[in-house]
């Protein structure tokens, strides 16, 4: 069964449709990338999946259960999702360790000792073992974003949503964050990500979706989308990305 | 791509949402009614209730005292409005004075700090006594002898110190990068304050300022202690004649009627700020 099914989702803001009937299936262990210009609706789609936005039509299913049902428990749904934001959003008044163990302890009822052991395990796996006691403002942007990813990971989510996770980082810091995402893919994590890093996207994705004006214009395996896009709008977008030197 | 036509599913979903909203509303109504009934029942069944009803809820006394209390309340409003304007001016000036870094102006900075320390420490009612009785006793030329004016001076001094701190917190909450940007355009410290920092700070401090003003509205009643015929004093005089406390209730009601709109305005502004920050 698909991890996530998006079925004809519409989202309107002030009488203007930002998502215009999106359909998408995400299979277990699959990495799906959403690409497209700013305002194409890719971030809004992610916000709909984690229920930060209410859809205006259509439905979203997580493991076959409709999460867009008004009677669905929003907190229950979000417990099964891991979300990482562009701007890290670590809690500045907590150490790295407390940031990571907050949700396992407060939401999932894991004992402190066990939560901390797991957090230390994740930190050393991703090369941050010596930062457990540090506060977010003592870390570089790349380190902060890696902590944010670990924080999302610590609740053992069914699906990870990564929204432009490298956009706020210096180029040399992007690499370390991309490396972590590669490792997640190898460990079998199911992920949806939006990104402007086309090289990385081509590398890591099983499925690439090109959005334009709230419409899913074209989707397919990365080789096809990046070498032989069928839709003129996809071709035009990739050409402009090429010209800006970001590919 | 086609235009959006609401699907069956969405129509059904909106129906569910509406029925849930209706259910929430009826639960809220029911629990409010239960709450009110319990409170009223608890009070009216207390042993002293008959006596309290006689001395605090006497309709005739209420009607008799209301015109005088209302007339007194006009003075409260006058005290309140005049002090409010003065407090804003003094508060902002003191806050700015505390931010001056130039060594030549050290005395001003020290004076501003001393002022906020002293007047935030002394209870408002003491300030009113000291100003109300002490200032005229100096017998200086030009010192007002009108008790209401003296009350305004006392309230302004007391609240000015609080409001100065509110302004200062607002000024300090403006990110240093804003000052850096203004100074790097060549603006002086004063112009940076005037055009960049204070406008941003003011917007942020409006809710806490209004909160202080709600508090000021009721503290105008403290001026009663030095004699002017404002609402509380008028109520007191009625009470002295009849030993019935209903006039106090009338005064309380009038004060509430004025503070409620102010409190709602504060909530509204705070909510608007939250929305703008996209929370």
UniProtKB/TrEMBL annotation, chain A:
Pfam families: ABC_tran (PF00005)
Molecular functions per Gene Ontology: ATP binding
Subcellular location: Cell membrane
Main location (coarse class): membrane
Superkingdom, natural source: Bacteria
All copies of domain ABC transporter, residue ranges: 4-238
Family annotation (SMART domains): AAA
Keyword flag Cell membrane: yes
Membrane association type: Peripheral membrane protein
Record's protein name: Amino acid ABC transporter ATP-binding protein
The species this protein was found in: Nonomuraea composti
TrEMBL record, chain B:
Domain ABC transmembrane type-1: 73-266
InterPro entries given in the database record: AA_ABC_transptr_permease_3TM, ArtM/GltK/GlnP/TcyL/YhdX-like, MetI-like, MetI-like_sf
Sequence intervals crossing the membrane: 21-43, 77-97, 118-138, 245-266
SUPFAM superfamilies registered for this protein in UniProt: MetI-like
Compartments, record wording: Cell membrane
Molecular-function annotations in GO: transmembrane transporter activity
Pfam families linked to this entry: BPD_transp_1 (PF00528)
Cell membrane as UniProt keyword: yes
Keyword Cell membrane: yes
Gene3D superfamilies in UniProt: MetI-like
GO CC annotations, alphabetized: ATP-binding cassette (ABC) transporter complex
The name this protein goes by in its record: ABC transporter permease
Family: Belongs to the binding-protein-dependent transport system permease family. HisMQ subfamily.
Keywords: Amino-acid transport, Cell membrane, Membrane, Transmembrane, Transmembrane helix, Transport
Species lineage: Bacteria, Bacillati, Actinomycetota, Actinomycetes, Streptosporangiales
Source organism, top-level taxon: Bacteria
Topological relation to the membrane, as annotated: Multi-pass membrane protein
BP term (GO), one: amino acid transport
């Amino acid at each position: 069964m698909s991890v996530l099914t998006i079925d004809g989702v519409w989202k309107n803001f002030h009488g203007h449709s930002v998502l215009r009937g999106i359909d998408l299936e995400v299979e277990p262990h699959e990495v799906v990338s959403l690409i497209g210009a700013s305002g194409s609706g890719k971030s809004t789609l992610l916000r709909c999946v984690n229920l930060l936005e209410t859809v205006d039509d259509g439905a979203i299913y997580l493991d076959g259960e409709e999460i867009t049902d008004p009677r669905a428990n929003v907190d229950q749904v979000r417990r099964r999702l891991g979300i990482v934001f562009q701007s890290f959003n670590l809690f500045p008044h907590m150490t790295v360790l407390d940031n990571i163990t907050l949700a396992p302890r407060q939401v999932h009822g894991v004992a402190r000792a066990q939560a901390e052991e797991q957090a230390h395990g994740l930190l050393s796996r991703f090369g941050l073992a010596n930062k457990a006691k540090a506060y977010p403002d003592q870390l570089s942007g790349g380190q902060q974003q890696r902590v944010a990813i670990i924080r999302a990971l610590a609740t053992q989510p069914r699906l990870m949503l990564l929204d432009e996770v490298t956009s706020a980082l210096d180029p040399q810091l992007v690499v370390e964050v991309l490396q972590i995402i590669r490792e997640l893919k190898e460990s079998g994590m199911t992920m949806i990500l939006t990104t402007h890093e086309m090289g990385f996207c081509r590398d890591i994705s099983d499925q690439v979706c090109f959005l334009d004006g709230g419409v899913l214009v074209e989707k397919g395996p990365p080789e096809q989308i990046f070498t032989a896009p069928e839709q003129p709008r996809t071709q035009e977008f990739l050409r402009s990305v090429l010209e800006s030197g970001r590919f | 791509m086609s235009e959006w036509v609401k699907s069956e599913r969405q129509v059904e979903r909106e129906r569910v949402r509406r029925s849930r909203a209706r259910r929430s509303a009826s639960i809220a109504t029911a629990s409010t009614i239960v709450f009110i009934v319990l409170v009223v029942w608890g009070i009216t069944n207390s042993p002293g209730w008959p006596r309290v009803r006689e001395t605090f809820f006497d309709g005739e006394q209420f009607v008799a005292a209301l015109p005088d209390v209302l007339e007194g309340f006009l003075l409260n409003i006058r005290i309140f409005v005049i002090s409010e304007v003065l407090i804003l001016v003094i508060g902002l000036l003191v806050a700015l004075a505390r931010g001056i870094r130039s060594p030549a102006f050290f005395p001003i900075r020290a004076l501003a700090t001393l002022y906020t320390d002293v007047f935030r420490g002394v209870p408002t009612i003491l300030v009113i006594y000291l100003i109300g009785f002490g200032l005229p006793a100096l017998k200086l030329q030009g010192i007002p002898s009108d008790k209401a004016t003296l009350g305004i001076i006392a309230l302004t001094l007391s609240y000015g110190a609080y409001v100065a701190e509110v302004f200062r917190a607002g000024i300090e909450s403006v990110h240093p990068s804003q000052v850096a940007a203004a100074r790097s355009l060549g603006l002086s410290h004063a112009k940076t304050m005037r055009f960049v920092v204070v406008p941003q700070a003011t917007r942020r401090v409006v809710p806490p300022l209004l909160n202080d003003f709600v508090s000021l509205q009721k503290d105008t009643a403290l001026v009663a202690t030095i004699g002017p015929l404002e609402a509380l004093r008028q109520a007191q005089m009625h009470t002295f004649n009849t030993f019935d406390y209903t006039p106090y209730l009338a005064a309380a009601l009038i004060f509430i009627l004025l503070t409620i709109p102010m409190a709602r305005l504060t909530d509204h502004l705070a909510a608007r700020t939250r929305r703008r920050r996209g929370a």
